Structures are given as C-alpha cells and as structure tokens.
Amino acid sequence: MTAYSDLSAHFGRIAALSNAIGILQWDNDVMMPKGAAETRAESMALLQVMRHGLSTDARIGDWLGEAESDGSLGAWEKANLREIRRVWTVDTALPSELVEASSKAISACEMRWRQARADADFAGLLPYLAEVLNLQRQIGRAKGEKLGLSAYDALLNDYEPGGRSAKIDGLFDDLAAFLPGFTQEAMAVQARRPALPALEGPFATETQRALGLKFMAALGYDFERGRLDISTHPFCGGADNDVRITTRYDETDFTKALMGVLHETGHALYEQGRPQAHLNQPVGAARGMSLHESQSLLMEMQACRSRQFLAYAAPLMRESFGGAGPAWESTAMWHRYTRVEPGFIRVDADEVTYPAHVILRYRLEKALIAGEMALAELPAAWNAGMKSLLGVTVPNDRLGCLQDIHWPSGGWGYFPTYTLGAMTAAQIFDAACKAEASILPGIGKGDFGPLVGWLRANIHGKGSLLPTDELLTEATGRPLDAAVFKAHLRQRYINEV
Amino acid sequence: MTAYSDLSAHFGRIAALSNAIGILQWDNDVMMPKGAAETRAESMALLQVMRHGLSTDARIGDWLGEAESDGSLGAWEKANLREIRRVWTVDTALPSELVEASSKAISACEMRWRQARADADFAGLLPYLAEVLNLQRQIGRAKGEKLGLSAYDALLNDYEPGGRSAKIDGLFDDLAAFLPGFTQEAMAVQARRPALPALEGPFATETQRALGLKFMAALGYDFERGRLDISTHPFCGGADNDVRITTRYDETDFTKALMGVLHETGHALYEQGRPQAHLNQPVGAARGMSLHESQSLLMEMQACRSRQFLAYAAPLMRESFGGAGPAWESTAMWHRYTRVEPGFIRVDADEVTYPAHVILRYRLEKALIAGEMALAELPAAWNAGMKSLLGVTVPNDRLGCLQDIHWPSGGWGYFPTYTLGAMTAAQIFDAACKAEASILPGIGKGDFGPLVGWLRANIHGKGSLLPTDELLTEATGRPLDAAVFKAHLRQRYINEV
Predict the structure, then answer these.
(1) Cβ neighbours of B42 in A, within 8 Å
(2) Which pTM value belongs to this model?
(3) How far apart (Å, rounded) are the C-alpha atoms in residues B248 and A64?
(4) Which of A466, B186, B349, B431 is positioned for an S-S bond with B354, CB 3.0–4.6 A?
(5) Looking at the structure, do residues A25 and A141 belong to the same domain, yes or no?
(6) Are residue B455 and residue B369 in the same domain, yes or no?
(7) pLDDT tens per residue, range A323-367
(8) A36 and B242 in contact by Cβ < 8 A?
(9) How large is the ipTM?
C-alpha cells in the first residue's frame, strides 16, 4: 500500500460513515415517528463522534506528508490531496472542549430560538445567541490561525472554500448599489401589466406530486438513485448514489411546491453528476455551497422561471389540474413566477429582492464576528438595513432578525453563499447558452439534455478537481462578477415584459 | 465510574450503533432506490465492523470480572452481566478469518441461491451451500467449545439462548407423532363444512392499509414509536422506540396482508413493551427468537384467528370493502382463516401443518451440522420427510429444499424457533386467559387492553431478566411442553367447528 492508497481507503470509510449519517438524517426529517427522537439523537451523536475520530486520525498527517511527495500521482489524486489537507487542517484546528461547548450551546440556543421566534422575543434569545456567537468567534479564530485568515473568513471557508470577504464585499456593494433602484424600476414595469388572474384550487397533493415527478424526469433526475418525499422543510439529502429530495404540498397553491421541486432537483442533479470514479473521496465532493446553490438556482431561476420553460410547462399544469381560463396561460404563469414584491421574509423573497436579505445578513454577521457591533444592537441594525435596502419597515423581530435558524444553529458565514450562488447561476447559464445553441430551445420543449450535458461536462463531473474560481473561469471565461446577474435581471424584469 | 457503569455505557454505545444499523436496514428494504445498493452495502459493512469492534473490546472482559464481584448490584444489573457475558463469550469465540470467510461464503451462496431456486437446480447450489455448511460447522464448533455445547446447540443458542436439541427432540417427536393423524382428522371435519364462498375483490391497497392501521390500534400498537410500510418480505424492524412493521398488499386478496399485519404487530408489541429503563442494555432485549415468534403467533394464531376476534373483525372488513353476502359472515371468515391444507411451501402453511415443515428442517440441519448426512443427500431426504410428515410428493427442489433462504444465508439453528414459538404462544395465551377472565371477551370487542396488559407485566416488560425456561415457568406455571398446543389445535379444529 502506498500512502496515497491508505489515505484513499481511509477517506472511503469516512464517506461510508457520512452516507449512513445522511440517510439517518433524511429518515429523521421524513420518516421517523416522533417518539424516536431521543434514540435517534444518540445514534447520530455516536456516528458523528466516530466520524470526527476518523477525520482527525493522527495517521492522516503522516500519510499526507508522504503522499504529497509522491511524483507518480495524476491531477485528480493531487487535487484529492489538496482537499484532504484542507479538510484535515480545519478538522484538527479545534480543541475537543471547544467542539463540545459549541455543540451544547447550539442545542440550547436552537431550542430557545423556536420559542423566541414565536414570541418575537429577542431579549429572551440574547444570552443564548451571545454564547453561540462567542464560541463561533473562538472557532473562527482557531481555524483562522491555521489558515492565515480572519475569524470570519475562516468560518466562511468551511462553506465556501477559497471564499474571502474582501472579494464578497466588492460584489455585494456593487449589487447593493444597483438593487434598490432596480427593484423600483421592475415594480413600475410590473404595475403596468394587467392584474394577475387567480388560479382556482384545490390542487390535490397526488396530482402535484405526479406533475413534480414529470418535471424531475424532464430535467434528467435519475430515479434509480434517488426519491421524492415530503418534509416540513424541503431539502436535498441522502447519500452517494442515493440523492433524495423533499417538498411540502399546499392544496390551495401548487406553484410553490412545484418550483421548490425544480430547485431541489437542481441540487440533486449536481450530486448525481459528481464523478463516479471519485465519489467517495474529498475530490469527488461538490465544490462548495455557492456552486451548489448555483445549480439549484440555475434550474429554478434561470431555466424554469424563463418564458421558454413556462411556455412548455403551463399547458401541462393546466392539463394536470384540469384548469381553464386566462390564469393558466403561459404569460400569466410567467408573470406569476417572476412577480417582484419586497417583503420581510427571506425564504419567501423573489429573485430581485432576495439578495438584499442576504447582503444585510452578511454585513451584520461579519460585524458581529469581528466584534464591531454588539449583539444587543442587532434588532435595530437589522431594521435599519431592511429600511435602506428594501424600503420596508419591520414590525417585530419575528418578522425580523429572529426569522432564520442559521445564527442560532451556528451557521455563521453561510448566508453569502445564497447570493453568490444566484450570481454564479446567471454567469454559468449565460455561458452554457452561448456555448450550446440547443439549450434554450431544448428548455422550451422540456428537453434539458443539452443543458445538463453541458453542466455534467463543465461543472458536475469536475467535483472538487479545481478551486471554485478556476472552475468558474474554465467554464465561463472569467471569475465571478455581478455583471451577468444584473444583465439577467434587466433582461427579465425590464426588457422582456 | 464503577466497572458496571463503564460496561453499561459501553453497551449503550453498541445499542446506539445497532439502532443506526436497524434503521438503515429498514430503509434498505423499504425505501432505498436500487442504484444505491452498493453504496449502502459499504455503509452497512463498515457499521457492522465497528459494532464488532465495540462488542469484542478487550476491556469488556476486565469490566465483567470486576463487576461480577460487585456485591451492590440489583437483580436487573446481575442479569445484565449474565447477558453481557453470554454475548461476549460468543462474540469473542471466533477468529476474525472465520468470520470473514463465512461472510463471503454467505454472500456468494445467497446470490447463487436466487438463481438455483428459480431453476430448481440443487446441483448448481451444492458447492456454495457446502462451503456455507462447512463454515457453519466450524463456527458451531468454535462457539461450542467455549460454551460446552455441541456444534448444533451452539448455533441454536445464538437464536434461542438456553435452547438445547435434546429437549427440542422430545417436543418435536411428540408433535411429529401427533400431527399427521390430527391433520387427517381436521381435514375430515373441514370436509363436512359447506363450501367456502369466495370474497369478491378488488380490494384497494389504501383500504387494506386503513383497516390494518385500525386493527393495529386496537391491538395497542404505539404509532408514536413506529410505522407501517410496504416491503417485498414483511418484517418487524427499526430501532429502540422506533419499531417499524411492513406488509405487502395483494388487491385480489386482502386476507393475507391483513393477518400479516396482525402477526408483525405481535412482534412489535413485544419490542415496544420491553423495559424502558433497560432498553439499550442486553438485559432489556427480547428474550430469544422462540419467545419473539410466540408473541407474533399469540396475536395472529391464538387471538386473531379465534372465533371471538373474527366475530368482531368480520363486520369491519365487510364495511371497509363494501362487501355483501355470506362470504363476509364471521363464521365464513373464521373458516377461511382456519383452513387446513398440506402443501409444499412453509411460508404458505396453515397453523396445523406448519410444524411439520419446521420439524423436517430441524432434523435435517441437525444431521447436516453433525455430519451424519451428506449434503448431496438433502433433496432425497427432504422429499422423503415431506411424504412421511405431510403426505405430499414434492415435484421439484424449487418447491422443496431450495425454498428457504435460511441455509444459504447462514441461519442454521434458526428453524426450530418457529414451532417452539407456536407452542409457547399456545401455552402463554392459555395461562393469560386463565389468569385474566376479561381477555377473551375483550378480544371479542376489539379491546386488547387486558391481554396486552397481562403480556406487558409477564413477558414484554421482563426483557431478558430471566432465562427463557424460568420466564415461561413464572408466567404459565411450567416449562414448555406440547400439551397446550395440541389441546388448542384439538379445540379449534375438531371441537369448535
């Protein structure tokens, strides 16, 4: 055995354990009876401790040192070593007491958050959230010391390898300057449209599910390596070669669940398209959260909210639900699926206003981690940001800074990946359509073969072979900037009315 | 920490891992898309290796030695030590090469068996099965050496702790002498009944499921700690506090799936009724396979195929399916559910003829393990046994010695527990009804509270506190014998026509 093959076998075991955890987590969210919660939590905790034991195994350092001087390795193997070193550096950066303290603080804070959100009671959450923040700052500092990064960039790096706030600042400042005025413009255009006729329900869950499955098949989802189920919070999860997505049906409105299915299918296509030869190795993993979100948003926002797709999809919707009248026409459907309306809640936001929610959170969490703002000031700063970025007056903290679970659950540094993903999606979709003329006409016929073929070759099949910037430059000719995203918004919301 | 608390914590971890494996196995059989098979097999193999590592941990021997001389322990703790020593003795009896060789031989043999059964090709299976048998013999000898048992008894002991073939020989010889004549008698009685009118389908799956759920609730199944789903082979599985059962629906005949659900509910009630305070310890486990089977057969054969239950259930069946006519009357339903008919296939056999299938397999596997019979002689010996015990002439090995997966999959020593379970069920049900007069009238009203209450106190809640013989003696006043089972058959099939 060479050091490389030892490493590879070891990470294969870590993948086998992660796959088990992935399925147990899916079951937890989709199938588990509620009386099993405690038993399941014990199993999950044990498997996570076992995985941590494997991923911090002292032999990894020795194997890495030896393998990195092995001249016989190819590009994938070298990239695998780069990824293994990155993960291992981070995994071994934290003293186990800090990991444990953080895990406990998060559990307590999440539980308190559910109540505090319901009660719009920020003061009640404050001490719990302060503890989580304090520990996140320590975690960021400990990782940052090893990586030569600020605490915030070190946290961000876990979700977005190679992501740096200095670069995000520039991208987000560009967008923040553009969006408020653009939103007004788009809404003015929208106001000149005829009133949107209502879709008359009810829409049976089984019919919604059947239509979702039909569109998943059109997008190229492989049902032999996945499933569609129901959960409270839609997600894409599971394991290698077992990529499961979920949705939540509302019998008074099918449009959200349907578009949610297409969004999760975008995530799933990425997971199903990762390189089979390296599936259980770090180099075979998805490249990062912004690229992952780009794949869901490429399908949802770029492809499936397009006029072309909705011209194909609207008649199928009408036929499935036995609808009739102008509400079911494809232009009405397109107007419905591209409606702009500033609001308080991020997860309900449309394509145009969503980035403002993210930019606000990004700026706030960066200041909080850096200690430039006191946590007690969060509600006021939040509400001021919502006013200036979106022009809305937040009535209470339930609809304000208490709405998301990310901060209570320790997900600091995650938020920017949503909007990086939206920008990346626009840039990739634009490049794909320019490279392959059959993509847009294909989408108009429900044939996603050309699009997915291009994505397989240029994104999915590359796994973590290249750093994100290089991957994007190879695929689109340049690193990420805001220009294509802004042009896309202008085209869809102003020009293409 | 005392040695006992170290042991207890260690076995708590083993339980957490076993619970994870249980849910992954359930998912494998119920939910998993087929393209995930290889990935899942890797996860399962890893978790099983990890569990084996925990259960053969060298510290267990030291902890056991110390804890066994701890005078402060109570009855449950002492029984837990007894169980831990039993399991540990067996788990550490085998060299790892033997475990691995056996696991490989079983995989190869199972795969070959599927084809051989389809082709009725015993000769094609022979070399694979010979290898499995050879390794089972070695495993039995290695365990037997540690336990002071014959190879066969050592294998049996894994499924039926304390079970001994010398005792089973006596019980089964008793039954074997009784059954052929009794079967003829019962069929003569049956022949004098009016012809059984057919139930006209189809019977929608959803209706079958709803009725199954209704009866599960009547039996006392706790839906907050379990689920009902569909799988090719019905089973009861899952994890502590997460006891899941499955069935398989046939829209032309609801009676099998419905009774199958009641059978699995019997298993599930045992699992859900194990002592909460000891759920994750060996002493909290179900007592053994014959007692487990006794709980499913008590519900299915003793309670739910009774005249009393079917008088309550038949009108509900009729109402659910909108049935009409004499086929739906409770006496017809009882005749249908107590029909006797010798056949080739064990899993299709009725209550009267089932033991003959088991006795044949038991005698054959005992002779094969002892080397008293050559494997090549199996088909002829099988067919001769079927002729003498059941009076049927087996047309080919697909309907003969190739029908069950147990031997190809290494389950030698398992078969007798089916019929021990049937006898145990009769003895327990008889004792329960004598101790608690409200049980039978309750069953007649769909109220299983008195029955389950008695089982909770006398069987389920005891876990593995007592050896099987003692548990049964405490509950029924005597160790297992064939008398009550024979009396039950005589009452149901001769007297109570």
Answers:
(1) 12, 16, 19, 280
(2) 0.95
(3) 51
(4) B349
(5) no
(6) yes
(7) 999 999 999 999 999 999 999 999 999 999 999 999 999 999 999
(8) yes
(9) 0.95
